[in-house]
From TrEMBL:
<dbReference type="Pfam" id="PF00497">
    <property type="entry name" value="SBP_bac_3"/>
</dbReference>
<protein>
    <submittedName>
        <fullName>Amino-acid-binding protein YxeM</fullName>
    </submittedName>
</protein>
<dbReference type="InterPro" id="IPR001638">
    <property type="entry name" value="Solute-binding_3/MltF_N"/>
</dbReference>
<keyword id="KW-0732">Signal</keyword>
<feature type="domain" description="Solute-binding protein family 3/N-terminal">
    <location>
        <begin position="26"/>
        <end position="249"/>
    </location>
</feature>
Length: 253
């Protein structure tokens, strides 16, 4: 009888442990699945820096994550409509976005970097971009940074936008565009880990924090994810994840 009671109690503890990861229910998160190394697919599964950071932070606070995939402009629209709770896709914190969303604690810092094809011998510094066609992803902060940079310096750059990075990189490879702008750490990973034939043009034109955006009325989930991110920073996991995916520590400005 005593053995039966002990086994029953052990079983209850095991069940309690299994359910603790989901004690607060499900949090729905949007991502593109097309933003290596932040969010991409490997063997049919979503992986990447942003994916792991959000899942680990959510798990620490008792949430199960449900992922929803769409192009970048599409997932931000789903956040606006309330169909997702947040977005994990290297979303930069900008003044314009802060008027609309509340942001989690930063988990990374990114620079907006212009690159060109390694085979392009005409472009080596910013002055060579005058009158050239440079691309960015529609709705991204990097595209906005490019437009501000162009206006400030009067370079006469023609900006072309794409729904996703893959299409822009393909056109860059084939020299249908002269340049492309994205996160410096992302482009470094593309160059070093995927052997993309690109070269950097100058230094990043700006540096911004990346965070998980939430609608302003979704305060509880935002606070919980903040706690999870802090725990990842404090125990060193966040830095390890950054080095795993980028080959460098992007967690400090």
């Amino acid at each position: 009888m005593k053995k039966l009671i002990v086994l029953t109690l052990v079983g209850l503890f095991i069940l309690a442990g299994c359910s603790s990861d989901n004690k607060k229910g499900t949090i729905v998160v949007g991502t593109t699945g097309q933003s290596y190394p932040n969010s991409y697919e490997k063997d049919g599964k979503l992986v990447g820096y942003d994916i792991e950071v959000f899942e680990k932070a959510a798990k620490k606070e008792g949430y199960k994550v449900k992922w929803v995939k769409a192009d970048f402009s599409g997932i931000m629209g789903q956040l606006d409509s309330g169909r997702v709770d947040s977005v994990a896709n290297a979303v930069a914190v900008t003044d314009e976005r802060k008027e609309k969303y509340q942001f989690s604690n930063p988990y990374s810092y990114i620079g907006s970097q212009i690159v060109t094809s390694l085979n392009n011998k005409e472009i080596n510094d910013f002055s060579d971009l005058k009158g050239k066609k440079v691309a960015g992803v529609m709705g991204s902060n990097h595209t906005e940074a490019l437009e501000a940079f162009n206006k400030k310096n009067n370079y006469g750059i023609s900006t072309k936008t794409y729904e996703n990075r893959e299409s822009a990189m393909l056109d860059l490879d084939n020299q249908r565009i002269d340049g492309y702008i994205n996160s410096s750490s992302v482009l470094s990973a593309e160059k070093n880990k995927k052997d993309k034939k690109i070269k950097f043009v100058g230094k990043p034109i700006n540096v911004e924090a990346t965070s998980f955006p939430f609608k302003k009325d979704n305060k509880d989930k935002k606070k919980d994810i903040d706690k999870g991110i802090k725990a990842l920073k404090d125990n060193g996991e966040l830095k390890k994840l950054s080095n795993k995916y980028f080959g460098e520590d992007t967690t400090k400005k």
